[in-house]
Amino acid sequence: MKSTNLHVKADGARAGFSLVEVVVAVGIFALAIVGVIGLLVPTSKNIADVADSDAASRVISAIQSGLQKSGGYAGVQAALNAPNTIFYASKDGSKVGVSTDPMWTTGQNQERFFEFKLVRNGDTPAVGDGLSPAANDNTAGFLAFTIVLKWPAFAPTADGLTGTAVEDSQKSVMVVPAAITR
Fold first, then answer.
1. Predicted model pTM
2. How far apart are CA 129 and CA 33, in angstroms?
3. How far apart are alpha carbons 34 and 106 in whole angstroms?
C-alpha cells in the first residue's frame, strides 16, 4: 500500500492544505523575511560606520607618529603656518601625506579616504593667546594643535578608479587634540 501525505477522514474525504491556505502561508513567510532583511540594512551601515571609526583612530595614531618622525617640530610648525594645507591618508593608514605630494597627485582618488588638516591651538582673538600662539614658536617647548580628520574624502565612481569628492556635509569628522615637542 502506498503512503501519501494526505490523510483520509472518516467520511472518506481527503484532508490537506488548500491552495488558498498555502498562498496565505507563503505570503506571511515572505512578509516576515522582508522584515528581517529590512533590519539588516541599517545594521550593516552601523557596522561599516564603526569600522570606519576604528580605521580613523588607527590613522590618527599613524599621523601623530609620522609627524613626530618625519617633520618634527619644524614640519608641524610649517604646516600650522599654512592653515589651508590639506593632507590625505589611505584607509589603512599606509599612505599619509600633503595633498600636493606626487603620491596623491598621480594616484587614484579612491586611495584618498581620509582628509585632514592641522589647526593651531592659539591665536584666537576671542580666547586670547591660546596654547600655541605663532609669536611663541621660536621659544616654545611644544606646539599644541588639533587634527581635524574627515572621511570619506572621495567616493568611488562607476569605473572604480577615479572617485569623486564628497561634500563636507556628508563626511564623518573626528577632532583630536595633539601636541609635538621640540
1. 0.70
2. 61
3. 45
